Amino acid sequence: MSYDSQNPLIVQSDMTVLAEVGGPRYEAARDVLARFAELEKSPEYIHTYRISPLSLWNAAAAGLTADEITGALETFSKYDIPQNVSVEIRETLGRYGRIRLERSGKDLILSADDPLLITEISRHKSVRPFLNRRIDARRLRVDLLYRGHLKQALTRIGFPVKDLAGYVPGRHLALRRLPNTRSGLPFRLRDYQREAAEIFHAGGGPEGGSGVVVLPCAAGKTIVGIAAIERLQTQALILTTNITASRQWKAELLDKTDLKADQIGEYSGEVKEIRPITVATYNILTYRKKKGDPFPHFAIFNQGNWGLIVYDEVHLLPAPVFRFTAELQARRRLGLTATLVREDGLESDVFSLIGPKRFDVPWRDLESKGWIATAECREIRLPLPQHLRLDYAVAGGRGKFRIASENPSKIPLARQLIRKHDKDQVLVIGKYVGQVEAFARELDAPVITGKTPSEERDLLYARFRQGDIRLMVVSKVANFAVDLPDANVAIQISGTFGSRQEEAQRLGRILRPKANGSLAHFYTLVTRDTRELEFARKRQMFLTEQGYRYSIRDAADVFKESGAAPV
Fold first, then answer.
1. Helices 531-545 and 500-508 meet at what angle, rounded to 10?
2. Residue 386 DSSP code
3. Burial of 468 from C-beta contacts in 10 A (0-12 / 13-18 / 19+)
4. Rounded to the nearest 10 degrees, how much is the dihedral formed by the CA atoms of 296, 301, 302, 304?
5. Contact, 507 vs 522, CB < 8 A?
6. Which residues contact 464 (CB under 8 A, 6 or more apart)?
């Protein structure tokens, strides 16, 4: 058995990969692993990745071959790769594309070169309901309505289909990007934005037209969406997380393209407009009076002759929208996200119904080129006050997490960090509305929660962008698609259990590059020896995935540095 002490990886026969963080080649190995493996655990010294079928199929869709993957593992592995790992990679990767969906006139045809494979699939109980009849030894007819349902079923049984059935063009819409924004600044696509749009478009052929682009917050995912619409020259439906995000999409389209205001519609709880470009919220689409009722606003999918549907923050796509998307496979679909991690485990449905990962860029690559700010990440641990320890001891699991998250000692600690950054633009971000409001009172700062009217939110965001406000306290409504380019300090006082996707979004709030080149600072306040600490470790896996190192400090040291006494 060969051995190379400089290499950081140990590839194991169960398809896991151990990565030694301290090795000289770790960062290069991590960036390679991220293309075809998923991070499972990230303690201080040894990180664990898993090579899964879905991670390999996403890699295959992005153009990676089995030889490239095994070659990368051999390059960075301390020991010889177990023989079964190479075989599993080759066989699993080889399943992608063995089955194809194509159009033949008005028919949808499922085909494979291997007649025995078609026979196996046709007899599978989860696939059979979506098949019409057998044409010959290698082909099956499929009802058009079941295109998405069939793709879901095939992925779940381990045979992801290559969908080459094409798309409807949608109604034509002339759209041109402007060389200068309406605000007077030069505007052109960055190289990675252009490449992402080109790969998604794929020359307009059936090889492209569906899939997910993964880019960091602040890297311009909206611009990729605009570039895709421009290439297709078609009417588009854009789905967003909230009304603030919808209005930011509209503002970007008006600022950077030749579209007029009356060509862009808002479809939300407040306005119901159908225009050539319509921006709708997930909330309005999933609204219904009571459980069991139909979703009345799903009609929007058929009210416009859309040539493209853009799913912003696709990792948050609600399950009911997945169900309807299964019936929209003839329309091009673009997912945009900072992370493919979903807390509900439905990554395979994103793969089947929106499309595979088409493009991504490591966060640290964009940081090194100045496209996003350099970030310093710190976890600060503090004790639970004595008077809360009995309450914590007798509480249930969720109760323990909430008591630790709402630790009142976080207020003086946050105040101390704010003093340290008195010339910066600071966001204090929390999960619990009561805690967020209490912080706002104690810090004498404006607050935004889900109860804040949208007009007031927009005004506060605008004042923060203009520098009139330097400190703002926000609930999780500000996690997503809020454009605050000058924010450079985030203090996270509580989070949604172990949510890596939330960690991505919150870090993203401060990653727009600063005019003066200053660092972004991301602080997380965590109560020591509690359930909050357990979940914080899971959230930090996202930072590890993206190559960020985070330091852990004691609250007492933060106070000591400034000469202040802990409260």
1. 60
2. G
3. exposed
4. 120
5. yes
6. 425, 470, 472, 484, 486, 487
Question: Which SS3 state, helix, strand or coil, does residue 84 take?
Answer: helix
The rounded distance, in Å, linking the Cα atoms of 56 and 68 is 12
Exposure string (b/e) for 38-59, b if CB count within 10 Å is 16 or more? bbeebeeeebbbebbbbbbbbb
Count of Cβ atoms closer than 10 Å to residue 507 Cβ: 26
Q: Could you tell me the CA-to-CA distances from 285 to 102, 323, 352, 353, 478 in Å, in that order?
A: 30, 12, 21, 17, 20
- Interhelix angle for 66-76 vs 26-33, to 10°? 160
If you write DSSP's letter for every residue of 411-459 in order, what string do you get? Answer: HHHHHHHHHHTTTS-EEEE-S-HHHHHHHHHHHT--EE-TTS-HHHHHH
Question: pLDDT tens digits, residue range 390-434?
Answer: 999 999 989 999 999 999 999 999 999 999 998 888 999 998 999
Strand pairing category for 375-382 and 161-163: unpaired
Q: Are 490 and 509 in contact (CB under 8 A)?
A: yes
**Hey, what are 393's tokens?**
């001891």
Question: Which pair of structure tokens corresponds to residue 15?
Answer: 């398809």
Structure tokens, 467: 């520098």
Q: How far apart are CA 407 and CA 383, in angstroms?
A: 9
Alpha helices in 326-409 (DSSP H): 347-349, 363-368, 389-394, 397-405
Tokens of residue 169, six digits: 């063009």
Query: How much is the pTM?
Result: 0.83
The percent of residues in the chain predicted with pLDDT above 70, rounded, is 93
Residues 6+ apart with CB under 8 A from 4: 77, 78
